[in-house]
Amino acid sequence: MKTFKTLAVIAAAWLGSTAVLAATVPVGTSITGQVSGASTTLVGLDDGSNVTKLSDGFGDIEFLTGDFAVGLDFFSSGLLQVWNNSGDTGLPGSYTFTFSFAGLSPSLSSFVGLDLSGINGGDVTLKLIDDHSISLTLNNLSFTDSFGSFTAQLGAAAAVPEPGTLALLGAGLGALALRRSRRAAA
User: Fold this and answer.
1) DSSP one-letter code for 82
2) Same-domain status, 85 and 166
3) Secondary element (H or E) of residue 143
4) Contact at 8 Å (CB) between 124 and 113?
5) Which among 40, 82, 165, 166 would be 20 to 30 A from 152, CA to CA?
6) Are residues 147 and 166 in the same domain?
7) For the chain, how long is the longest CA-to-CA vector?
8) Cβ atoms within 10 A of the Cβ of 143, count?
């Protein structure tokens, strides 16, 4: 009985830990971005196109607008840091960004502001478009200082173990229970 309980606790802990350890956006994920409004060009810093791969290093900004006024830095934890790169506290005009994450698993479930204390005027709109895409609109922002920033957070749906993993775990626990019942009968 003690062995069976120990294995059940270990299995439950293992299944629970897989969701906790997974990154929201794994390093190397391809991100495709588009921008409209004050700038119509978005440059991914991998090769100059509008597609880049997540690098997850501090200061490794994934995208810059064509006018160099906005930098966007994604992290595997789901954090998005948006930088005012204009050199002035004001960021006039409107910028609407859309980002799609290729092959993202698990799916995105939320996109919310995290720390907007670096902004003292204007509007920021965050929207989850679907399970692999987000939208971000900046409208006439005023930052608390030159080259200021703010952060937002992507959330992912809880990871669900594959059916084969659960079946194998169930079969193993069933075999242990059968063995235990045979020993108890003998």
Assistant:
1) E
2) no
3) strand 133-143
4) yes
5) 40
6) no
7) 82
8) 21
Q: What's the CA gap between 184 and 103, in Å, rounded? A: 50
Full DSSP string of 89-126 = SEEEEEEEEEEEETT-SSPEEEEEEEE-TTEEEEEEEE
Structure tokens at 174: 């069933």
Asked if 121 and 168 sit in the same domain, the reply is no
Domain ranges, residue 16: 2-21+162-185
Could you list the pLDDT tens digit for every one of the 186 residues in the chain?
555 554 444 544 444 443 333 578 888 899 999 999 999 999 998 888 999 998 876 667 899 999 999 999 999 999 999 999 999 999 999 999 999 999 888 899 999 999 999 999 999 999 999 999 999 999 999 999 999 999 999 998 865 555 665 556 666 666 666 667 677 676
Q: What's the start-to-end Cα distance of the chain, in Å?
A: 15
CA-nearest of 84, 17, 24, 29 to 53 is 29
